[in-house]
TrEMBL record:
It comes from Macrostomum lignano. This is ribose-5-phosphate isomerase. Pathway: Carbohydrate degradation; pentose phosphate pathway; D-ribose 5-phosphate from D-ribulose 5-phosphate (non-oxidative stage): step 1/1. Its EC number is 5.3.1.6. Belongs to the ribose 5-phosphate isomerase family. Keywords: Isomerase. It catalyses: aldehydo-D-ribose 5-phosphate = D-ribulose 5-phosphate. It is an enzyme of class 5 (isomerase). GO terms for biological process: D-ribose metabolic process; pentose-phosphate shunt, non-oxidative branch. InterPro entries: NagB/RpiA_transferase-like (IPR037171), Ribose5P_isomerase_type_A (IPR004788).
């Protein structure tokens, strides 16, 4: 693909939109002497790049807490100050993360990258959760754009039990996520398995999330119910929308 075609491609424009949203989010939230959470995924590269740039320019000191091994590596590669949640004795100032899909009520599906448990732990430890995405992640209802299902992190010995119960209680199919790089299932950073629940109809997602947490073997779900303080949506025209819960 030549340069002209590359710059006109949808994927390129989406990445530019994510970058615009990431820079806007960091510019509006980053301050000196903060402790912040760093989410996982491609969008977080832009977030970390902007944090690193501002810290160098202003001589600030900021502690970064990762939600995954990938986030940890990005923090170290950019020369940022790595900090671990277990050593933090106060609420995080804010956490930056991305989403797989956001519905009209600002509920989110997260965990397509397999880091949902640590993401939810770090995100809920922050006083403010800032979500960064491009407009392809925003839809009127779950499943309209995101086709990966709702991830469930489960205890390995219980995956088949959870699968049967989810399908029986809510319908659809709960599929064990298989590794692409080796034989066998994906194993999370916490040593657990992932089920991707492909639902067939819309539900009361807050109630579904509650019911899923009652199932023995379910450690965490990829449902983030109205968890974001502010959502930055980068658009293909170069603008950035800001969504806030009413």
């Amino acid at each position: 693909m030549n340069s002209t075609n590359r710059h006109n491609s949808v994927d390129y424009k989406k990445d530019v939109a994510r970058k615009q949203a990431a820079y806007a989010a960091v510019d509006e939230h980053l301050q000196n002497c903060q402790t912040i959470g760093i989410g996982s995924g491609r969008t977080m590269v832009h977030v970390i790049d902007r944090i690193s740039e501002l810290i160098r320019q202003r001589g600030w000191s900021v502690r970064c807490i990762p939600t995954s091994y990938q986030a940890k590596q990005l923090i170290l590669e950019r020369g940022l100050r790595l900090f671990e949640l277990e050593h933090c004795d106060e609420e995080l100032d804010w956490s930056a993360d991305s989403a797989d899909e956001i519905d009209a009520e600002l509920n989110m599906i997260k965990g397509g990258g397999g880091c949902l448990l640590q993401e939810k732990i770090v995100d809920t430890a922050a006083g403010t959760l800032v979500i960064v995405c491009d407009e392809s992640k925003y839809s009127s209802q779950f499943g309209q754009k995101w086709k990966g299902g709702i991830p469930l992190e489960v205890v390995p010995m219980a995956w088949s039990l959870v699968k049967r119960r989810v399908e029986s209680q809510f319908g659809g199919k709960a599929l064990l996520r298989e590794s692409l790089g080796k034989l066998g299932p994906v194993v999370t950073d916490n040593g657990n398995f992932l089920l991707d629940w492909h639902f067939e109809q819309q539900h009361s997602w807050e109630e579904v999330d509650f019911q899923l947490h009652q199932m023995p073997g379910v450690i965490e779900t990829g449902l983030f119910i109205q968890a974001a303080s502010k959502i930055y949506v980068g658009k293909l025209d170069g603008s950035v929308s800001r969504l806030v819960l009413k």
